[in-house]
Each structure stands twice: as C-alpha cells, then as structure tokens.
Specification:
The chain is α+β, with helices and mostly antiparallel strands and 71 residues long. It has a single domain, classed as Alpha-Beta Plaits, CATH 3.30.70.100. The longest helix is centred in the N-terminal third of the chain and has 12 residues. The chain is globular, with a radius of gyration of 11 Å.
C-alpha cells in the first residue's frame, strides 16, 4: 500500500462530507482521512495504484484545492 499526502483547503466537517462521496467512489482507494487540525488540512489517501494527479483532479472537480506534498 502507498500513502499519498496532500495539502487541501478542506477546513470544515461539512466540507469533508462533500469530499466523502467523491473519494469513496474510487474503488482503488482503500482508506482516506483529512486532518482538519493541521494547518495544511492534510489529506492522506491509501491506495496501491493511484496517481497523485488523479486525486488532485478529483478534489478540484469537487471545488477544493489539493496539492501533493513531497515527503
């Protein structure tokens, strides 16, 4: 499993609820979470074969900023 890490502008629980159906619809995403306490509103995505650009596109299409963080 790979963990992809992104900075987002998802700042409220209601916004997490907006993102949830978008990410949950992708069968190759095994797990995901957003840390609303972190200043970068970190999104972690667990997957075997998912492109970081694809995740960025998913969130952008839902109206949110999303940028992969190097680690």
């Amino acid at each position: 499993m790979n963990v992809l890490i992104f900075s987002t502008n998802v700042a409220k629980p209601e916004q997490v609820n907006e993102v949830q159906p978008v990410l949950s619809a992708v069968s190759s995403i095994r797990d995901w979470n957003i840390d609303l306490e972190d200043c970068d509103k970190i999104l972690r995505v667990v997957s075997n074969d998912l492109s970081p650009r694809y995740v960025e596109t998913l969130l952008h299409s839902a109206g949110f900023a999303c940028t992969e963080l190097e680690y």
